[in-house]
Amino acid sequence: MAVDTQAPSRGFIGASYRTCPETGLKVCSQAEALIKVNAVVAVVFLAVGGFFGLMVALTRWPAVHLLPADWFYLLLTAHGADVLLFWVIFFEVAVLYFASAIILNCRLAAPKFAWLAFVLMVVGAVLANVAVLQGESSVMFTSYVPMQAAPHFYLGLIVFAVGTLIAVFCFFGTLVIAKEEGSYEGSVPLVTFGAITAAIIAVFTIASGAIILIPTFLWSIGYISHIDPLMYKVIWWGMGHASQQINVSAQVAIWYAVAAMLLGAKPLSEKVSRMAFLMYILFLQLASAHHLLVEPGVSSEWKIFNTSYALYLAVLGSMIHGMSIPGAMEAAQRRNGFNNGIFEWLRKAPWSNPAFSGTMLSIVIFGFLGGISGVVMGTEQLNLIMHNTLYVPGHFHATVVGGTTLAFMAVSYLLVPLIFRKEIMFKKIAQWQPYVFGAGVAGISLFMMGAGTLGVARRHWDMGFSDAAMSFDYPATAFLMMGLNGIAALCAALGGLMYVLVIVCSVFFGKARTPESIAAFPTLPKTGGAATVTTYGSEAHPKLPGTVVLVSVFFVAFVLYYYVNWKYLSEVWPLS
Amino acid sequence: MSDQNTGSGGAPEERVPAMQRLLDNPFLLLFMGVATPAALYLLWGVMELSQIPLAP
Amino acid sequence: MAIFPPQNRLWWKEPLSGIEITWIGVAFVWGLVMFGTMVGWHFVGKQNLSNETYRINPNAFGEKVEAMVERYQVREEGDTGIPVVHPAPGTDIYMLGRLWEWYPVLELEKDQKYRLHLSSMDWQHGFSLQPQNINLQVHPGYEMVLTITPDKSGEYAVVCNEFCGIGHHTMVGKIHVIDNK
Fold first, then answer.
1. Is the peptide bond before A236 cis (omega within 30 degrees of 0)?
2. pTM
3. Contact yes or no for A316/A279 (Cβ under 8 A)
4. Fold classification of A5-531+538-570 (topology level)
5. Where are the domains of chain C?
């Protein structure tokens, strides 16, 4: 953590900074150190959780059927906790510190508390892993009561959540400091606004988690006699689903950031993009109801209103981002001179830069596979033919792995040179990594959704029911889907391994960036970056034919797939 | 948010529109972003669960 | 640049471009259409969940199931020892989930209405009717009631699709739907 320059008299005594040679930003050394440790721990959990995921996929591959049942359920629980919670949230804390202290050019608030937050998060995450690996807490990530885990499983999650809450408040504190010390003028940058959205959703997430996990912990040590399973489920999903909405917000912020840093893209309209984030802040979290659509005891009114994010206003937000990010890229590329035809701007984009290709694949996989399937599955009646089938993990592997994880991987290729100040090693592997990983994840999502459409249950060790008293045969196509899913999982695991290899080697053994190497291989190319952008702010009404084509294709796919599923629903037994 | 009306240049500047001031206030957004789902999702949901009748 | 503050201090007042206004309009209307489809299906569609649910002690639910079995049992399912019941059409029928079976096996008549009661004796279970692919969540302590009308005859499996412990994958039940003479 080299410190190049001491802070001038302004600001907090003891805060030290260096000046970034590529962006000219002032980098708070405490924020930088915390970004590093959180990102490194995140990658460790990705590697561990990803390995568990591969074991799960190989067990669900009927011809391989790798693990015995107890190990399958154990590793499936650990896989869920490690990647769905620990990997993404450690990385998100790094993103929050980056979007506040670094982008706003100021010091991090209460660095001691930020370190405490980090320690608590590590302790909690390790404790939960120990509980699961000891074998007494194979309750799945959701830990639905009255099934009971060991007390230290719940305690680990609670300690982790407390740490996360402290980190989120360090982020909010940094916003206050930046405002008071005048480290920026006017409004915060759009990327920071996206991070604010993520942090707000995180507060709701952690509050819901506290409301339900603390009583559940007390129940597990015998202090409370009964936890109502329906009450648990409603409140737990206030945490479980909302935590994935933190991902969505953080990943959209990263999409904007990468488009800005690599292409010099400006938002088409600050107003529209920020209003889209406001729709997230207000309504995205209502989608926790997606998990309760075939539950007894909650009314259709509650289900319809909440599952639709209040008349689909949060989907409106996502569709706006889905237009305005490619639109901003197109506008920037046309300004950079790629102005021929409809798609020259896209063809001549930096596809060999993993930060760019990862971001684009993240947008496409999240939008087409994750977004559409999420809305379809989150329709009150359509959920009847999808709930708890493999369609569910198929959907959220498209959002959390194809969307969030791939976006985080992409931005890592910028963080390593800018924050760790190391050269990316194995450039060829890095260049292919997003494609290998993206192809694998797209396969996993599609094949699991296919198997789910055929009825195959999720979280199920043996789709052949070989030990069951009464047997049932899924269609042969379903077995084929799960075989293909296993192959796709191998591909995704290879992509994940490439990522871990490149990032870990670069961070720990990479050559330090020097002024010469920065000049020769700038992280932020001259066409983009701050250099050529003389005015920032909104784009002046450009023509964007390529974006119009892209969003039209998306819209047609959305409408068709939505009504195809209503057709499927109309063919099952009448229910009322 | 008290300094919204005074530009750094010192020249009299137009008042910032209300919606922009809302979007520039992270703590107001934090309140709205926690209160809305707490009321519409959590409270409404828990109220419904608490009203489920006993089986006849 | 999205990583710098907007240069225009009053960015809220910048006008929108045509493509943005159009897309926002399309997306908003599409949201209303999807919302309307969900609401409308309650009036014109045939596949909707009822909102009928009761709190019940698992043992009390078990007694209701046993009463139905005593009254309507016709045989046992193969060599499993699990009773097959053939309740009168239009009546209340019961199925309970417990570690690790669905009890009892139901024999229903095609195109007849039945009021199906579902609950669990222990943990949560997932009622997944295959190959129809109708999926419902089953909770202990809650009795969910819905009217079903099997409209195709055949043999259906009830797979458990909510994880319920080490024997979860062996939890398969049956519903027979027969043509009425």
1. no
2. 0.93
3. yes
4. Cytochrome C Oxidase; Chain A (1.20.210)
5. 17-44, 52-178
A186:C9 CB<8 A:
yes
* pLDDT confidence of residue A23: 80
The DSSP element (H or E) to which A113 belongs, if any, is: helix A111-133
pLDDT tens digits along B4-49: 444 444 445 778 999 999 999 999 999 999 999 999 999 999 999 9
> Which chains have 3+ CB pairs within 8 A of B?
A, C
In C, which residues are within 8 Å of B20 by CB distance?
10-12
- What per-residue confidence (pLDDT) applies to B12? 56
Please judge whether A282 and B26 are an interchain contact, meaning their C-beta atoms are less than 8 angstroms apart. Answer: no
Given an 8 Å threshold on Cβ–Cβ distance, is C54 in contact with B54? yes
C9 interfaces chain B, CB cutoff of 8 Å:
yes
- Quote the ipTM score: 0.95
In angstroms, the CA A95 to CA A107 distance is 15
Q: Does B7 touch chain C (CB under 8 A)?
A: yes
Q: Which residue stretches of chain A have pLDDT < 70?
A: 1-14, 526-541
Per-residue confidence (pLDDT) for residue C1, from 0 to 100: 64
Q: Judge: domain C52-178, CATH 2.60.40.420.
A: yes
Percent of chain C clearing pLDDT 90 (strictly above): 86
Give C36-85 pLDDT, tens digit per residue. Answer: 999 999 999 999 999 999 999 999 999 999 999 999 999 999 888 999 99
Q: Is B1 on the interface with A (CB under 8 A)?
A: no
Please list, in sequence order, all residues whose beta carbon lies within 8 angstroms of the beta carbon of residue C136, skipping any fewer than 6 positions away. A294, A384, A387, C49, C118, C126, C127, C128, C144, C146
Size of chain C in residues: 181
B-chain residue closest to C51, CA distance: B52
Domain ranges of chain A: 5-531+538-570
- Using CB atoms, which chains have 3+ pairs under 8 A with C? A, B
Chain B interface mutation, best of A188, A204, A538, highest count of B Cβ atoms under 10 Å: A204
Cα angle vertex A51, ends A45, A56, to 5°?
125
